[in-house]
Amino acid sequence: MTHAKTATGARAWQRMLSGRRLDLLDPSPLDVEIEDIAHGLSRVARWNGQTEGRWPYSVAEHSILVEKLVHRLDPDLALKWRLATLLHDAPEYVVGDMITPFKAVIGPDYKEVEKRLEGAVHVRFGLPAKLPAEITSKIKRADRIAAYLEATQLAGFSKPEADKIFGKPKTGMDVIIEPMSPTAAKQAYLKRFRILGGSSR
């Protein structure tokens, strides 16, 4: 495979620990490995690392929380859509977790790269490249609840401030978040992936 370069000639791929070279401009599902995703997300910090606790709160842990919340919101949701929920931030194993205000500054280019990576991840694990709007809506709702819980428990937001920014959740307020080590977060993510029917074959 010929890996793409940017208009300036700079390389546009990243080498993963698995040995795969993932092309950011034209990502192939064949270059996506769940071990790479779990490893990367367990080391990417949410909230730019501005959270309390011994360990940074990782995107891997956030993803597990969102999947837990989406199941609460819709207990009958099919396993494949819960798997899609677990993978909803998978592109961040390549591009990192940029806070929402910074994404707005960068503009649509970031979203386009993220969209291509997301499509490759979905196809790799037997999901449609673009999820149905109904599923995307459910994931976003659970994501906002998770953001509220993280903001108030870890990131120093007051509840009135979080109510205004994220909306006060109607469920999930009993969830206690305890950041874990990258190694533990990686293993927890991989375990959840397998429980939800994910396969690396």
Structural class: mainly alpha
Instruction: Calculate the mean pLDDT score and round it.
Output: 91
| Overall shape | globular
Query: Can you count the helices?
Result: 9
Poorly predicted sequence stretches spanning 5 or more consecutive residues: none
What percentage of amino acids are in beta strands? under 5%
Largest sheet: 2 strands, antiparallel
Element string (H = helix, E = strand): EEHHHHHHHHH
Provide the spatial order of strands within the biggest beta sheet: 1-2
Question: Termini distance?
Answer: 20 Å
Rg, Å, rounded: 17 Å
Keywords:
201 residues, mainly alpha, globular
3D structure, described in words:
- With 201 residues, this protein is mostly helical.
- Helices cover 51% and strands 3% of the residues.
- It contains 9 helices and 2 strands, in the order E-E-H-H-H-H-H-H-H-H-H.
- The chain has a two-stranded antiparallel ribbon with strand order 1-2.
- A hairpin with a 5-residue loop joins strand 1 (13-15) and strand 2 (21-23).
- Helix 2 runs antiparallel to helix 3, helix 2 crosses helix 7 and helix 7 packs antiparallel against helix 8.
- The chain starts with 12 loop residues before the first strand and ends in a 6-residue tail after the last helix.
- 35% of the residues are buried.
